[in-house]
Amino acid sequence: MTVFKEQVAVVTGSSSGIGKAIALQLAAQGAKLCLLGRNLDTLLAIARSALGTSPQVLSYQVDLSLDEDIQKLSRNLAEDFGHVDLLIHSAGVISLGEVKTARVEDFDWQYRTNVRAPYVLTQTLLPMLIPHQGQIVFINSSAGLTAKAGLGQYAATKHALKAIADSLRAEVNPLGVRVLSVFPGRTASSMQASIYEMEGKTYNPDRLLQPEDIAATVINALSLPRTAEVTDIQVRPFLKS
Questions:
Q1: Does 2 reside within a domain?
Q2: Cα separations (Å) of 212 from 17, 118, 217, 240?
Q3: Whose CA is closest to 80, among 9, 179, 23?
């Protein structure tokens, strides 16, 4: 399939998990990929896998918490591709802790990565997205809808990310840009494995959502005709008895 043939897709957090799965599925449908992450070696390995189907794949080592890295990325994208059709926000971090004991420094770290970074990156790339009536995807979390004990800081950043997506959608829909928020439940990944370890629980990835499940959901929504827009998707693990 070549639904996204020649479209330029920027994918944050593409070195692992959901971001990696989305990038590979977009490549399989003919998209050009801009892979963003902190580990260049990992990105290059994924790029080699994607080049079998994608016409062009470039990897950018970026720390999205640094404004100067985002500005440099914008210049590189303008030079390398000229425009952007798809912007997928999949990068994120998490720290557990109750409100009475959680460090404020951990809150600041999560805010900078989960909220400020996608906000600044979106703002920076909109001039390249709007003329092509692009699409923007925010990979949020089930915590972005319901906050549970020990997740106050993380949930707050995800609630904020939903607010940004909702406001952005109202602003750019009249310009032909679609905005999607996805709220996955627990998804098998290295991050989820570390969460289970922090919780003192046994990690069984086969009982969780798979990154490919979320990627398939996103690809389906992005592929819809322009007569429709999916705004919010909740996906949860389906545990068989």
A1: no
A2: 9, 22, 9, 19
A3: 9
